[in-house]
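This part of the workshop introduces the protein records we will be handling. To make this concrete, we reproduce a full record directly below:
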Amino acid sequence: MSQISRDEVAHLARLARLALTDEELDSYASQLDAILEHVSRIQAVDVTGIEATDNPLTSVNVTRPDTVEPGLSQREALSQAPASAEGRFAVPRILGEPE
């Protein structure tokens, strides 16, 4: 027994603003019917006594601990720069910006 008709597929296509040919309507109707049949077979499975599982993995949010480590001083950071000005990295102007 078909769970979805060709007319229902045509209605859905109109709602989605899809222009489907007669062949496409027939094809999609049979494909959607097969999908609905599989879903109904899955829904018919007896799962009494089976615990629901949303995630089979037991490890959650595995991250390393945050540790504070000293960074470079301004002088150390600028010591290897090709050019610096007023305590900052100096780079060439871009996009015609004024100096």
